[in-house]
Records
---
Amino acid sequence: MPNRAIIIGTGSALPSRLLTNRDLEAMVETSDEWIKTRTGIEQRYIVGEGETNSFLATRAAKNALEMAGVRPQELDLIIVGTLTPDTPMPSVACLVQKELGAKKAGAFDLSATCSGFIYGLSIADKFIRDNRKMKILVIGSEVLSRRVNWTDRTTCVLFGDGAGAAVVTGTKEDRGILSTHLHADGALGDLLTIKGLGTAHPVTMEMLELGWQYIQMQGREVFKHAVKALESVAWEALNANGWTTDQVDLLIAHQANMRILDFLREKLGLTKDKVFINIHKYGNTSAASIPIALDEANRSRLLLPGSKLLMVAFGGGFTWGSLAMRW
């Protein structure tokens, strides 16, 4: 039996401020009914004073390490999927390493937007296939409220902040990550962007006036490509492992829009009880979406030994990916 990567602990963390749809009604021209009907979102959490990406990531990491029974000093690697780091340098992963005291661990961020956690697990899987004794912390953490234009009702209602984490190590048993499938299409990148704040468009008055420091999205086009990519990459994982859809015990998909989740469920022929949903509570938290959902599912005992789990994600870039595992 080859080395397999297994998740031995999960954790999540949310910021302190709850922002409901009713709150948004007082901020921008929208309504609770409009938001729920089109997205399925009822509320989201956003950071308050003193709360940063690394703060949330560290809290999620501590919760995952506690569940795993792993000390920070045992970690070999920390991977953080994020598009909203505290600073360009140092990385969120290095800040988490410092806060945890994980001095033995290498640390880096990766940028794959909403697919970041699946990309991170895929990298961890490759390391552990070579050395099953490694202990790797994979985190998805975002502070999207700092990249949202709160006067743009088409985008500000969608996003929230949060973090999720998983502790990954190896086994010779017949369980764990079975396959990962990663894709990207940079030709579609202009459909979902933050154009400013990088080296191509540094901070100038002109850039700020254009609103390029904020998320800009062509919603209908993003939806169209998302549903196709998610269905395709889900089938790719199923076929790679010889699974039929009725063998899937739980699907955890990126929580972007309830309509996308319903579309995917119908295309795969899954019953509602096999699709994990928490978008109504948190909105779209990008790279944090899947690990927060994974932690909730795990702590709710929806994942039992031997459960067949399918994860799928899609995000800006464009990136998309899937992962199949036996819990």
---
Amino acid sequence: MPRLYNEIYPSAPLLNSEGTSHISAAALMSVRYFQAEPDSMPEDVFDEHHILLNLQPIPHRVQNMRNGVLRDFTFHLHDIIVTPAGTRSGWRWFAKSNVIVITLDPKKVEKFAQSELGMLLEPNQFEDLPQFSDPDLCAAGVILRDALENDDMSSAVMFEAMSRVFLVKLLQKYGRRRPEDVALSARFTSAHYNKVLAYIRARLDQTITVDDLAAETAMSKSHFNRVFKETLGTTPMQYVMAYRIEQATRMLSEPNRSFAEISATCGFADQAHFSRSFKKVTGQTPKEFRAGNTP
């Protein structure tokens, strides 16, 4: 059974975002900071993507066994190694390590790419990125690490902001989009998705129908329904509802927003409809969610 990365790392993390209060972005990623004397980690398989950011200024030798293939290389400052979810990987390093390890849930990354960036990602992300150098991405990781040193609201705000910056940088530079080499009328592409997403965002406070969304993509209703579900794994109306709930969840973290305002802004018929729909998706009423997630 796959385990957590820090369960087999030879030393405990100096900093760890798991369990940190006030940080809702922890749902998108976990950030851990390690320093360890020369040692090794056994081969194992994880359900998450692992991104190692090297902060050790002195180049040092590292071995990585990945799916039965040994890589013996020199690890330089600002080098990054990505181990995709499902990869069997083991490590040995020959000098004291100084690394930030960021773990990402593949499904949450895919959802973030869709809702925040309008990107439809290919399956099996990051398989072609065993090692690369990116000082800019490492700098974002350092800010994330530093935000963990104090468990207070200002640090939480910084972590929240930089977690999104990190993901945007990572996906825009290294995320693999689905190929667009098939005629647009034959499938649901990123171009189609962006039109649908823009329409939903612009009219979130209004009634949205399948006919409206199909018209945005110049598809028939039946064809749009089919290719949308084939691509995103949900029906268009289920997606619209999920998007309304997602936006409402964000607004509930703002104490000054009333339930009536959130309900209207997110396109629910009334507060009762908002409360029923929210509880069906999250298991909590809006009031219960706000009470448990507002500092």
---
Amino acid sequence: MNHIRSLYGRFFLRIMAVCFLLAGLLFVAAASIRAGNSQLSVCLILIAATVLLLFSAILLAVLIRAARLRNSSENSQNETRLSFLTDLLNDEHYLGYSRQELASEMLKTQAQMNSLQSQINPHFLYNTLESIRSKALLRDEEEIATMIETLARLFRYNISQRNTESSILDELENVKNYVRIQNYRFRDKFTLKLELDDLGELPENYMMPTLTLQPIVENAIHHGLEPKISPGTILIRGFLTQSKLILQIRDDGVGMSSDQLDTLRARLFQSDDLAPVQKEGEGARHGAGIALKNVHQRLQLFFGPAYGLEITSAAGIGTQIELCMPAPSEMRDSYHAERAF
């Protein structure tokens, strides 16, 4: 890099020297004309013109040589010697050299990050939690041991889940672990109720996008029940219609005003370019729409645009989020019929 920069410097210094020489000759010629010595001025002008023509011819020849070198496969010594001239015809040479250095540094950084990630992998986390749980059991700290075991299960489902789809039963089990962890934090403030008898054995077989229910329950706790002074309840109810399977997640938290609900629905159903920009603390509950929009979009990608989330809420009463998915009889029309059920 420094070698190429020095070649650039010498090249432009020589151009400047020739320009100063030509300018000096022309100034002297002008002074000679003013002094009445026309013969000397004519000689100086001829000399300047000759130098300019020779310099132009040399520069043209070198540039032609550089152009040929750029398009040929000559030896590396000539390429190094004239690479700075090739740059005059191709500005990307110098920029490309910089990109190569930048790419190399990025690869090194990525390799370091991968090394760190490989050291802090999920198995390391699970083994560490299991060791802590074992020590807790040895000290007869059963509550701590249970909490650590629940946390490990939650991490295992969230981190190590490689499948893009899970059964409703698996999703519900993950929700139970999540609520159990939250109750350790908030001293059993939350109650989770399930009313799924109408679905029969369907939760064991019906497939849906992984991590669909837990973000909704998390949203209900964080935005609906945490601000509530008294304990709160989350009800998950499931039932079938002629064409849809519906899961309702209802909380009896603080709820939302009609304006907040309208803003949240706009963020959920409109595209990213059309959704209104929301400042913190204004409109819908800050951050509430991000997770819900993600779930809504994944449901539509998985089942089709006719399905997704529906939201109702009332201030002081609570919020209900309804997951609409195709009934088993309608799965043939779904985008993922061959693997969703």
